[in-house]
Amino acid sequence: MKTILHQSETRGHANHGWLDSHHTFSFANYYNPERMHFGVLRVLNDDRVAPGRGFGTHPHDNMEIISIPLEGDLEHKDSMGNKAVIKEGDVQVMSAGTGVFHSEYNKNTDKEVKFLQIWVFPNAKNLTPRYDQISIRDVKKENAFYQVLSPNKEDQGVWIHQNAWFHLGKFEAGKSETYQLKDANNGVYAFVLDGEVEIAGQKLNKRDGFGIWDTTNFQFKSIENSRVLLMEIPMN
Q: How far apart are CA 142 and CA 70, in angstroms?
């Protein structure tokens, strides 16, 4: 088993007034040659957007972009004609493929929106762009990891063009679980949303990130009440 620890305070940080963002991997003006990606996981941004503000229309291509709201309402518009609002309990995916323009705004004028912006390299280039969002409220479990993303259209959660599985979990203190990788050639990047946990013997606190690879499974324990995102992705 191989691991890498990225503690919360070591992330890149940019505060633009309307946007307060922490970058686990190199992004925009934050550049760290040792923090370019973890496997095909290219971007993990922890964003807070001021009331009524947001990202104006801008382009992307050849990237799988996943948004997971943590608090508040995020309004999406894109060049494919999609208009939608996502909130906590939803997951959004946009396959940029050959190219797409989109905007993301805080729909509310009285409170921040907090969300994770995640980019994953696709398994093929110049695919047809697509958009999807789902509610995961009905599949949510207590004290267990539940799937919110996979490579398969028929599976639970959204799907992307990559051999990846994302799981969310909310745990009470003292609860434990064994995570079994779907593909032994993959790795897992764990991101602690709240609380304190132990993964493969490593203690992690809120907003710490931890990469694991060269293993088929690992042990998880919640030391305090916690929320965790597991991102299983190819390592090449």
A: 17
CB 65 within 8 A of CB 130: no
* Per-residue burial over 14-25, b = 16 or more CB atoms within 10 Å of its CB, e = otherwise: eeeeebbbbbbb
Would you state the pLDDT for residue 64? Answer: 98
Q: Which residues are annotated as a binding site?
A: 58, 60, 102, 104
- Known binding positions for Fe cation: 58, 60, 102, 104
Supply the pLDDT for residue 236.
86
Over range 200-204, report the average pLDDT.
Answer: 97
CATH, domain 13-135, list 1.10.10.10, 2.60.120.10, 1.10.1660.10, 3.40.50.300:
2.60.120.10
Does the predicted TM-score (pTM) go above 0.85? yes
